[in-house]
C-alpha cells in the first residue's frame, strides 16, 4: 500500500530535474511512514490520498533535515544524517527544496486540505523553535512541554488524519482529535525511548535529549519527585554530555520515582482515548496503528 | 503604497501568536521591497494584490535568512544578520516559519497565483543549492552561472510579475518575461556592486563573493581574457579571504580587460528588452522600476 506513495515521492523528486536533489533523496532513510500509513488507512488509496501522503512525507522529511541541524544530530536510523554526511548547508537547502515542492503539489489537491497541511507546517516550525528555546534552561513547566510537542510533532500527524478525513468525506473533528492524541503519544514515547533504550536499538546516541538541554516528561517528573540535593544534582547535569555514572544515576532515580511509568501511562491514556474514538467510528485498523505507537522500541 | 504591505506582513506575523517570532521579525531589515513594488505597480492595490505582495516579501525574507546561513554572511544592510545576532538555528527556524506562513496564506489568494509563487520557491531553493555547488571550484561556465541566477534570483521576481498579471487580468507571458529579465539583471548588478563598491556603501563586506568561491560574470570574463599566468593567479585566489593587494590586482585587471563593463552591458541589454516590452504594453511606471535596477549603488 505504501509502494504507491514511494513511487509518487520519487516522481515528485524526478520532476525537479535536478540530479543533485535526486542523489540527496536517495540517501534519506524512509522511516516508518507513519503519516502516510495513517492517511491511506483513513482515506483509502485514491490518487488524491496517495498524493497527500507523498506530500506529507516530503514535508516531514524536510522538517527532519532541518531538525537534525537544529539538534546537532549526526545519526538518524543508524546512518549518518545529511548534515553529518554532507554539511548543514546541504541539509538546510535540501529541506527547503522538499518543503517547497510539497507546498507546490498541495495546490493540486484542494484548498481545504492544503490549508490544513500548511497550517500544520507553520505550527511545526514554531514548535522546532520552541523546542530549542525551552532547552536553554532546565524546563520544569509541563504545559510548556506539552504545548511544544503539540506544535512540533502532533500538528502534522493531526493534520494528516484531518486531511485524510476531508478527502474521504469523514468527520474531520474526530480524526483530528485521534491524530492529535497519536502525535502527542508518539512524541512522549520517542522521548521515553531516548532514556530506556541503548544506542544500538535507537540507531542514534542514547540520552541525547538531556545533553541537548531537553527536559522531556520523565525529567520533569523526576525533578518534581527529587529532594533539594537531588534536584541540584539533576539541574547541574542539564545541557552537557553525560558521564556513564551520571546516566546511571538518572536511570536509577527515574526508576525509583516512577518517572518513566508515569510518563508512559500518560501516553497510554492518550492512545486509549484515540482507540475509543475509532471504535465509535468503526475504524478497526486505526486501533492497530494507535496501539503500535506505544508498543515499539525505536 | 507599500505601507499596506508592511501592515499586512505585520498582521500575518501577529497571527502566529508567538512573541518570539514577533521579536525576530522586528529585527529584520525591510529592504527595498522590490517584489512588492513590482506587484502593486502591475496589479494595483486591491486586497489580493497587497496580500500577494506581503506573502512574496515574507518568502523572500525567509530565503535571505537561509541564504545568510548558507553564505556565512554576518552583515546585511549594515546590521548583523539574524544568524550573526542569534545563531544559525534561529535563522533556519525563523525562515521556516516565514516560508510556511507565506504558503499558508497563498491558499487564500487563488490556485494559479499559488502555483506560480510556489513553483518559484522550488526553483529558488534549487538555485541556492546550485550557488553553493558551483562555488566548490572556479566556475568558468557562463551558462551554469546564468541558470543558477535564473533559479536563485529571477524565479521569484518573474513569479511576482506573473502573479500580478494574473491578479489584474493582464497578459501573464509578457510580465513573466519582463520579471525574468529584471531578476537576471538585478542579480548581475548585485554581483557587480560586490566588486565595485566598498563595504560602507554595500552594508556588508566587499568582494565577499569571490572569497566564498562564487565566480560571478566579471570573474568569468576576466578568466577568459587573462593569459595563462594571470589565470593561474586568479584561480589560486579563489575561495579564500583576499589580501588587499590581491583585491587591487583583481580590480585593475578587470578594468584593463573590461570585465565589469562587459557584465554591466549584459545587464543593460536585459533591462532595455524589459523596458521595450513595457513600452509596448503601455506600462510607463514599470520602465522606471526597471531602470532603477541598473542605476543603484547598493
Question: Outline of this structure?
Answer:
Chain A is an all-alpha fold. Chain A has helices spanning 3-15, 19-26, 34-43, 47-70, 82-85, 88-106, 111-134, 142-167, 172-196, 199-202, 208-211, 217-225, 228-237, 244-256, 259-281, 284-294, and strands at residues 75-76, 79-80. The first copy, chain A, contains 16 helices and two strands.
Layout: helices, strands, pairs:
The structure is a homodimer of 298-residue chains.
Chain A: H1 3-15, H2 19-26, H3 34-43, H4 47-70, E1 75-76, E2 79-80, H5 82-85, H6 88-106, H7 111-134, H8 142-167, H9 172-196, H10 199-202, H11 208-211, H12 217-225, H13 228-237, H14 244-256, H15 259-281, H16 284-294
Antiparallel strand pairs in A: 1-2
- Helix tally of chain A equals 16
How much helical structure, as a percent, in the residues of chain A? over 70%
Overall strand count of chain A: 2
CATH domain class name of the largest domain in chain A:
Mainly Alpha
End-to-end Cα distance of chain A:
22 Å
- What name does the CATH topology of the largest domain in chain A carry? Farnesyl Diphosphate Synthase
CATH hierarchy: architecture of the largest domain in chain A? Orthogonal Bundle
Oligomer: homodimer
**Unreliable runs of chain A, pLDDT <50, ≥5 residues?**
none
Report the largest inter-chain contact: A-B, 37 and 37 residues
Strand order of the largest sheet of chain A: 1-2
The succession of helices and strands of chain A, N to C, reads: HHHHEEHHHHHHHHHHHH
Largest sheet: number of strands, sense, barrel closure of chain A: 2 strands, antiparallel
